[in-house]
């Protein structure tokens, strides 16, 4: 039964990434894109799996470099095309385009009612490690919550709504994130040490705007909406030293 649901729901999951938002900056207009699916109900963030050890993935060496290199090649693009295949115009499709060529099926742990981001969170919990602190590595996933009011009730109860890829981490801890927003594939910054600060006194960007201002909702920065990192790909020696 579960396999039938997964097959039928794959298209729905592909549109599950905060459809229409984030729009890619602090801009004050209403995004007109409408999802194929009806408005979602209240969604909780699943607790990371605790009852058993993760089932590690078997992936060829160099996977992290491959994922990051593919993401960098897509920067500035309005469409995600990898190896001749065109992917959907949302954040989950972008991440799938980076991971599926490596043999990683990020939606395979989906449960009924999940959006695409939540399904990927479950996969990471089962096959890798989810963490909020510490220093991520290039190629890790980064999850965000409440980037849009997808169920349109004016409350912050939409759970996980956006996902991107860690490109690198700067010396001051600012994480470079490549992700897909409405205007295309972009690079944002996120500094968890200063979650409400846009720039330093010297003008260096620490965080980018991830949620735009809307009636009853103030704009929010990347670090304010951070939910967790996930590591799935093998950690090779040169990366472990970073």
What this model shows, in words?
This protein has 242 residues and is of the alpha+beta class. It has one domain. It is 21% helix and 19% strand. The chain is built from five helices and ten strands, in the order ααββααββββββββα. The protein has helices at 2-14, 63-74, 91-99, 116-127, 237-240, and strands at residues 81-82, 85-86, 129-131, 141-145, 160-169, 175-181, 184-190, 209-211, 220-221, 226-231. The strands form three sheets. A six-stranded antiparallel sheet has the order 3-10-4-5-6-7. Strands 1-2 form a two-stranded antiparallel sheet. The chain has a two-stranded antiparallel sheet with strand order 8-9. β8 (209-211) and β9 (220-221) form a beta hairpin. The longest helix has 13 residues, at 2-14. The radius of gyration is 17 Å and the shape is globular. It starts with a helix and ends with a helix.
List the helices and strands and how they pair.
Elements: H1 2-14, H2 63-74, E1 81-82, E2 85-86, H3 91-99, H4 116-127, E3 129-131, E4 141-145, E5 160-169, E6 175-181, E7 184-190, E8 209-211, E9 220-221, E10 226-231, H5 237-240
Antiparallel strand pairs: 1-2, 3-10, 4-5, 4-10, 5-6, 6-7, 8-9
């Amino acid at each position: 039964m579960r396999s039938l649901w997964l097959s039928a729901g794959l298209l729905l999951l592909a549109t599950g990434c905060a459809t229409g938002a984030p729009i890619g900056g602090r801009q004050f207009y209403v995004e007109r894109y409408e999802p194929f699916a009806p408005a979602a109900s209240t969604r909780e963030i699943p607790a990371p799996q605790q009852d058993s050890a993760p089932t590690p993935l078997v992936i060829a060496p160099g996977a992290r470099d491959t994922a990051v290199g593919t993401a960098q090649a897509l920067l500035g693009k309005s469409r995600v095309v990898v190896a001749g295949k065109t992917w959907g115009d949302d954040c989950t499709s972008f991440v799938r385009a980076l991971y599926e060529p490596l043999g990683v099926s990020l939606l395979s742990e989906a449960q009924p009612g999940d959006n695409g981001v939540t399904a990927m969170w479950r996969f990471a919990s089962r096959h890798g490690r989810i963490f909020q602190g510490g220093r991520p590595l290039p190629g890790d996933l980064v999850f965000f919550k409440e980037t849009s009011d997808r169920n349109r009730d004016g409350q912050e109860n939409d759970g996980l709504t956006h996902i991107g890829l860690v490109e690198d981490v700067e010396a001051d801890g600012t994480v470079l994130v490549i992700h897909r927003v409405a205007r295309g594939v972009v690079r944002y910054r996120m500094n968890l040490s200063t979650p409400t600060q846009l720039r330093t006194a010297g003008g260096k960007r620490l965080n980018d705007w991830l949620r735009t201002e809307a009636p009853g909702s103030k704009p929010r920065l990347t670090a304010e909406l951070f939910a967790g990192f996930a590591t799935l790909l093998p950690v090779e020696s040169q990366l472990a030293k970073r």
